[in-house]
C-alpha cells in the first residue's frame, strides 16, 4: 500500500501546541499536546466524542519507516477524516541536560485504511528508540478540527541499515577508493600489556570481541559482530605498513594469505568519516561456514575477493597476490581467533597518534561523500 502523504513541522517555541503544515502548504492547524492543552486561537473545536485509538501495533520496521495500526470503537468512526501522530525520540537518561532537546515531530495524515506506513529519513533515524501516540480528528466545514483524546504511548526502535542501504554506501565508497597498491601483511597495533594478557590468559590466541559503535549509526555490525581489528594500508613510497599508529606501540604482523584466501569470504561493512578529509571503509573477512560468515551473509553485501575496489586476493604464477585501495583507510575485521604464533610482535619506531583513533568515533552526518538518503 502506498504511504499517505505526511506533513512534518517543528514545534512552536511560544505555544504549548505544535503547528502542523498540511501537505507542505501555508495553511496550518494546531494540535493539542498530550495533556490536552491548546491555545485559545488554536482552530480546534471543543472536544467531541471521537473514537480514541487503542491497542496500537507497530510492524514492518526499517531504519527509516514503520507501519502503524490500531483499534477503534465503531461509534463516530465514519466522521474521522484525519489522524494526528505524535512521534518523539525516547529521552536518554544519560543525555546532556544542557543540550537542546530533539524537536518533537507532529504528523497529520488523511484517514486511510490501516495499517498506515510512516516513512521519512528527515525525522526517523536507524537504531533509535521512539515513542508514538495517535489522535483521530474530524475536519469541519469551517476548517476547524474536532479531535479525540490521545491514545496510550507506545515505544519502538527503528532497525539497522538493510543490504540495500549498505549497497548504496558501497557504491559511494567505490567512487573514491582510488587505485590499488600491493600489500603483503595484515597488522594489529596494541599496547604491550594486551599481548602479555593474550599469552597468559588466552593460550596465545587473540579472541574476537564485539565491534564498537564507530561509523554509521545504522551499521548492522556495530555492537553485534564479533571480530579482531586489523589494518592493511601501506605507505605509498615504501609499500610497507606505516610506522605510526593510534592504537599502541606494539604491532602484530601476519602474512596476508593466513587471514585472506579462497577459504574466506569478504564483506562490505561500512563507509564513514570523522569530520575529516579522509574516509574509512570497514571490511569483514570470515572463514567460509564460520559463525561470523553466517552473520555477515544475512546482513552485509558480499564482495568478490578477486575483483572489488577495496581489497583483493588473486593467484599469479602460483603465488597469492594482494592489493588494497590507496585513497581510503581500510579497517579489516577478522571473525575468528588468531594465534600469535602465526605472526610476529614487535615495537614500532614511529609515534602513537591518538588523534587518529576511530574507537567509538561518530560519523559526520553532513558529509555528502559518505552519507545516503536514509537516517544517519
Automatic annotation (TrEMBL):
Domain Fibronectin type-III, first and last residues per copy: 52-161
InterPro entries xref list: FN3_dom, FN3_sf, Ig-like_fold, PHYHIP/PHYHIPL, PHYIP/PHIPL_C
PROSITE patterns in UniProt: FN3 (PS50853)
One GO cellular component term: cytoplasm
SUPFAM superfamilies: Fibronectin type III (SSF49265)
Described function: May play a role in the development of the central system.
Annotated family: Belongs to the PHYHIP family.
Protein name: PHIPL protein
Organism (species): Columbina picui
Gene (name only): Phyhipl
Amino acid at each position: 500500500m502506498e504511504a499517505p502523504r505526511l506533513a512534518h513541522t517543528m514545534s512552536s517555541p511560544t505555544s504549548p501546541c505544535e503547528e502542523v503544515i498540511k501537505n507542505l502548504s501555508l495553511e496550518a492547524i494546531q494540535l493539542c499536546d498530550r495533556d490536552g492543552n491548546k491555545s485559545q486561537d488554536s482552530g480546534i473545536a471543543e472536544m467531541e466524542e471521537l473514537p480514541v485509538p487503542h491497542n496500537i501495533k507497530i510492524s514492518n520496521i526499517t531504519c527509516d519507516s514503520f507501519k502503524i495500526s490500531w483499534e477503534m470503537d465503531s461509534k463516530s468512526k465514519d466522521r474521522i477524516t484525519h489522524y494526528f501522530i505524535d512521534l518523539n525520540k525516547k529521552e536518554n537518561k544519560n543525555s546532556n541536560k544542557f543540550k537542546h532537546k530533539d524537536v518533537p515531530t507532529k504528523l497529520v495524515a488523511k484517514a486511510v485504511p490501516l495499517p498506515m506506513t510512516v516513512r521519512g529519513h528527515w525525522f526517523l533515524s536507524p537504531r533509535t528508540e521512539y515513542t508514538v501516540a495517535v489522535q483521530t480528528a474530524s475536519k469541519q466545514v469551517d476548517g476547524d478540527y474536532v479531535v479525540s483524546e490521545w491514545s496510550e504511548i507506545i515505544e519502538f526502535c527503528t532497525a539497522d541499515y538493510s543490504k540495500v542501504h549498505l549497497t548504496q554506501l558501497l557504491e559511494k565508497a567505490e567512487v573514491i577508493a582510488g587505485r590499488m597498491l600491493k600489500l603483503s601483511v595484515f597488522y594489529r597495533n596494541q599496547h604491550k600489556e594486551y599481548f602479555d594478557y593474550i599469552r597468559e590468559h588466552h593460550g596465545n590466541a587473540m579472541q574476537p570481541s564485539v565491534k564498537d559503535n564507530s561509523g554509521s549509526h545504522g551499521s548492522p555490525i556495530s555492537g553485534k559482530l564479533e571480530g579482531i581489528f586489523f589494518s592493511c594500508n601501506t605507505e605509498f613510497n615504501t609499500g610497507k605498513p606505516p610506522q605510526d599508529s593510534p592504537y599502541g606501540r606494539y604491532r602484530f604482523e601476519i602474512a596476508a594469505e593466513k587471514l585472506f584466501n579462497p577459504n574466506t569470504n569478504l564483506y562490505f561493512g561500512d563507509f564513514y568519516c570523522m569530520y575529516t578529509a579522509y574516509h574509512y571503509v570497514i571490511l569483514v573477512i570470515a572463514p567460509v561456514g564460520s559463525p561470523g560468515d553466517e552473520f555477515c551473509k544475512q546482513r552485509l553485501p558480499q564482495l568478490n575477493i578477486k575483483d572489488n575496489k577495496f581489497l583483493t586476493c588473486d593467484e599469479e604464477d602460483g603465488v597469492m597476490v594482494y592489493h588494497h585501495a590507496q585513497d581510503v583507510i581500510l579497517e579489516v575485521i577478522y571473525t575468528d581467533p588468531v594465534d600469535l604464533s602465526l605472526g610476529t610482535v614487535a615495537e614500532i619506531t614511529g609515534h602513537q597518534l591518538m588523534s587518529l583513533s576511530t574507537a567509538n568515533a561518530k560519523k559526520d552526518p553532513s558529509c555528502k561523500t559518505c552519507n545516503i538518503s536514509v537516517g544517519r
